[in-house]
Q: What sequence folds into this?
């Protein structure tokens, strides 16, 4: 007997299916962690070596408050001034770390649950240059570029988090640059934001800005929507003194923090992948100890982000397989301890949206995400070995990241998904699945469809202009920049912020009347 639903047209049946919010093909926090490049014995070796380095070698250049806290907790300091961390103290920092917390957006629907192996895609980079949308040349980045990046990302479903991606090189004063960086990011998107702070004395003003936006200090502490990223070490095995002061003050002000070690293999960390990994892990754990000694309840993110150099020249090499496997290993160590973890991936060496760009970014981001990194930074927009950002790339990367997230989601073999009854029905009936309601129901929930990725037949593509993906992405980026001016910071609040802070983006630049 013919199924009555097959008598109706394909478009009619498709119209009968609805997109349920809980049945999306991909979403923030898809669970990864299946990729494990290190064996169990190798994980244990990395752990034991990191613990041994912290106990016997330690780190130099610790600030006085850190020395006092670590010594009071059972640490020691050598005659050479190296601060040593006993294994019990390191284990205390790991075991008591906050887990399962939320990185809040300014709007609750933008919240990110940082738990287990949930994966979220992020920007990042602090690039000094921008690949201009119009001239297709590199130029110095500006505050406007940062705001523009944030509002493009605000519209990208598969970029879940905005980490400051370019430096506002048109602002020379560090304090002024820090406050305007925070404002540009927070005004450009309601998603969770991460920034760095250049000097300790600037932390208080950034905190004041956030308290004002939140409606008070207590409100911000309850729902902090900005993370402070801190490179607390200068590899190898030295603390960055000013950065450690920033870290301490940021924690006291109620910010979540991301603890970053970013040595460069063959230059500031060992040339071997394993050696670079173990040093980064040790340095990051030292930061975790200090952070928890400042506040045992701190929301701290474990972020060993060792980088790779091309040893022929000494220049950054972010697009190679070495970087990809190194980040996967770093993410695996985070998963080993069940720590909130961030990895750097996607820092392609390509200079524009081309085959090299897509290949290198896909490789690195896929591996870090499958290894279970909670926040994959530099996953979108970044290019030219951390020296440049493309606004158009945020648009094309949104498709790329959607496809990667779909692979992380996996096959999901369940009795329902196996669809044995559907197979039997089709084989006894029309012999194909095109007319089955099962197909129409699952085409939305199980399949990711790119927004600008081209799936037309070659002839159709040619007849309709034959545009390259970069051209399509640029057009879409221009459309967003012409029309999307976020208003999650109400007009009266924006005016009040300008009375208290030296905001350099004009009201006109953010799409509001003066």
A:
């Amino acid at each position: 007997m013919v199924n009555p639903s097959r008598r109706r047209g394909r478009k009619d049946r498709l119209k009968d299916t609805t997109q349920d919010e809980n049945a999306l093909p991909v979403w923030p926090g898809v669970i990864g962690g299946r990729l494990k490049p290190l064996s169990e014995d190798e994980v244990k070796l990395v752990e034991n070596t990191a613990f041994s380095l912290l106990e016997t070698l330690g780190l130099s250049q610790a600030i006085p408050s850190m020395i006092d806290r670590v010594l009071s907790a059972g640490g020691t300091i050598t005659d050479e001034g190296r601060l040593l961390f006993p294994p019990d103290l390191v284990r205390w920092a790991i075991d008591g770390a906050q887990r399962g917390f939320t990185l809040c957006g300014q709007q609750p629907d933008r919240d990110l649950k940082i738990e287990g192996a949930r994966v979220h895609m992020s920007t990042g980079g602090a690039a000094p240059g921008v690949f201009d949308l119009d001239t297709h040349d590199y130029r110095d980045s500006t505050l406007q570029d940062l705001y523009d990046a944030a509002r493009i990302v605000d519209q990208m479903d598969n970029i879940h988090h905005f980490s400051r991606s370019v430096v506002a090189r048109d602002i020379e004063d560090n304090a002024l640059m820090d406050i305007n960086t925070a404002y540009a990011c927070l005004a450009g998107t309601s998603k969770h934001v991460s920034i760095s702070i250049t000097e300790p004395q600037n932390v208080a003003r950034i905190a004041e800005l956030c308290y004002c936006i939140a409606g008070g200090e207590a409100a911000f502490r309850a729902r902090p929507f900005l993370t402070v990223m801190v490179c607390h070490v200068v590899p190898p095995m030295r603390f960055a003194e000013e950065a450690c002061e920033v870290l301490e003050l940021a924690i006291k002000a109620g910010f979540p923090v991301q603890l970053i070690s970013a040595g460069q293999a063959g230059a500031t960390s060992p040339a071997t992948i394993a050696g670079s990994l173990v040093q980064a892990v040790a340095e990051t754990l030292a930061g975790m100890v200090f952070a928890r000694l400042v506040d045992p309840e701190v929301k701290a993110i474990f972020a060993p982000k060792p980088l790779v150099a091309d040893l022929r020249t000494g220049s950054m090499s972010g697009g190679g397989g070495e970087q990809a496997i190194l980040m996967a290993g770093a993410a695996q160590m985070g998963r080993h301890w069940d720590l909130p973890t961030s990895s750097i991936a996607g820092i392609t060496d390509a200079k524009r949206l081309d085959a090299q760009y897509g290949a290198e970014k896909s490789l690195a981001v896929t591996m870090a995400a499958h290894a279970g990194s909670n926040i994959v930074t530099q996953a979108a927009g970044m290019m030219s070995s951390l020296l440049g950002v493309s606004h158009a790339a945020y648009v094309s990367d949104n498709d790329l990241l959607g496809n990667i997230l779909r692979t992380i989601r996996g096959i999901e073999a369940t009795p329902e998904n196996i669809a044995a009854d559907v197979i039997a029905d089709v084989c006894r009936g029309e012999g194909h699945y095109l007319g089955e309601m099962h197909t129409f129901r699952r085409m939305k929930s199980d399949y990711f469809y790119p927004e600008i990725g081209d799936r037309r037949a070659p002839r159709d593509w040619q007849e309709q202009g034959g545009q390259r993906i970069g051209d399509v992405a640029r057009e879409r980026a221009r459309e967003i920049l012409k029309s999307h001016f976020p208003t999650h910071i109400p007009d009266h609040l924006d005016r009040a912020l300008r009375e208290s802070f030296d905001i350099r983006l004009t009201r006109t630049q953010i799409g509001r009347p003066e």
Notes: Residues 1-8, 17-21 have pLDDT under 50 and may be disordered. The chain is about 45% helix and 10% strand.
